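We were asked to recover a plausible sequence for a given structure. The inputs and outputs are reproduced exactly as logged, with field labels preserved.

PROBLEM: sequence recovery
POSITIONS: 139
GIVEN STRUCTURE:
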């Protein structure tokens, strides 16, 4: 009554599953963490924070095995915006560092979050004294 299925099911494992390289969870987390830190480094360099940038670059080099390319691609964003962006990037790096148990990067990320939290209101008042402070994502 029914015709038998003549093609393989999509749920059947591939015959040559070992033909392409796989990365471990740790390798994927290293790649993700290096990406977050590289983005944080770019914003840190744009803010002109040389010593903090050097510490971040050291960790990116450790994770990638090569030093990161550093150039200040200026976005002409105001300083408070850059501090909020850096704070968010440091938070993402902190989450990944915690999941891979990298205490050095976790501490560095937490320090950068604290520094950008403290610097954002000062930068906002320096840019425009009457500007109200807003939380990221607040309406």
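RECOVERED SEQUENCE:
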């Amino acid at each position: 009554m029914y015709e038998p299925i003549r093609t393989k099911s999509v749920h059947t494992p591939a015959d040559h599953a070992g033909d392409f390289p796989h990365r471990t969870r740790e390798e994927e987390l290293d790649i993700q963490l290096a990406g977050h830190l590289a983005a944080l480094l770019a914003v840190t360099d744009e803010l002109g924070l040389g010593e903090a940038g050097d510490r971040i670059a050291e960790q990116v080099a450790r994770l990638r095995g090569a030093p990161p390319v550093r150039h200040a691609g200026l976005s002409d964003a105001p300083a408070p915006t850059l501090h909020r962006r850096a704070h968010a990037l440091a938070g993402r790096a902190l989450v990944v560092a915690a999941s891979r148990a990298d205490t050095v990067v976790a501490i560095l990320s937490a320090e950068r979050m604290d520094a950008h939290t403290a610097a954002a209101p000062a930068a906002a008042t320096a840019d425009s004294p009457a500007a109200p402070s807003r939380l990221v994502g607040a309406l």
